[in-house]
Amino acid sequence: MKICVGYASTEGQTRKICRFVADHLVDVGHSVELLDVDAAEGLDLARFDRVILAGSLHLKRFQSSLDGFVRANAAVLAALPSLFLAVSLAAAGDDAEDWRGLRECVAQFCADVRWQPARVEHVAGAFRFTEYDFFKSLAMRYVARQRGQVVDPHADREYTDWAALAAALDDWLGGVCVKA
Ligand SMILES: Cc1cc2nc3c(=O)[nH]c(=O)nc-3n(C[C@H](O)[C@H](O)[C@H](O)COP(=O)(O)O)c2cc1C
Predict the structure, then answer these.
(1) Ligand 1 atom with minimal separation from the 102 CA
(2) Do the beta carbons of residue 126 and residue 92 sit within 8 Å?
(3) I need a labelling partner for 45 at 20 to 30 A (CA). Which of 30, 74, 151, 166 fits?
């Protein structure tokens, strides 16, 4: 199958996640176009069989570039089997209130842009201290403390579960594997 993997990433973890997704899809025999939705001008989404879109939460909102991409491609997206990868730090934990909030953020985003992805996967992201400016670093150290996590403010800390992500992809593909 021809699969489009489009992402929006502020500090780079969603980009890394989508590179993994693209590699995994290619490994099982699919043809993939990986792109930052910010640079998707002129893309003809209709030539794909499926689409995966990914974005990350910042202050409970997904990137405006993702918002713009979905709105600009609404008609084609409505006709394509789709998967939304929602990246966040809350997904790294098991706090019921956090998870309720995550589902609300996704529901709000999908309602705003009028997109109903066939499937949503919540993917744990990362603290990217090497990418933060002074104020973001302070804020994220506070977030880490609130979550009871000890972090090194000079190093990144990744929570993405790569094996679980690969399994979710395989499930979404429903066994459509081109290579043996
Ligand atoms: C300023 C800021 C705000 C964030 N807000 C949220 C949030 O509201 N909920 C959440 O679960 N994670 C939040 N995060 C965590 C990000 O979703 C996480 O770091 C993710 O890996 C970022 O992906 P990216 O590197 O692709 O931008 C926030 C991170 C930053 C830096």
Answers:
(1) 11
(2) no
(3) 166
Domain ranges of the chain: 2-125+160-173, 129-157
Task: Give the ligand 1 atom nearest the CA of 15.
Answer: 26
Ligand 1: centre distance to CA 58 (Å)? 4
Q: Give the chain's mean pLDDT.
A: 94
* 38 pLDDT higher than 90: yes
Banded model confidence at residue 175, pLDDT cuts 50, 70, 90: low
Query: Which protein residue's CA is at the shortest distance from atom 3 of ligand 1?
Result: 58
Rounded to the nearest whole angstrom, what is the distance from the C-alpha of residue 40 to the centroid of ligand 1?
23
Residue-wise pLDDT for 51-70, tens only, equals 999 999 999 999 999 999 99
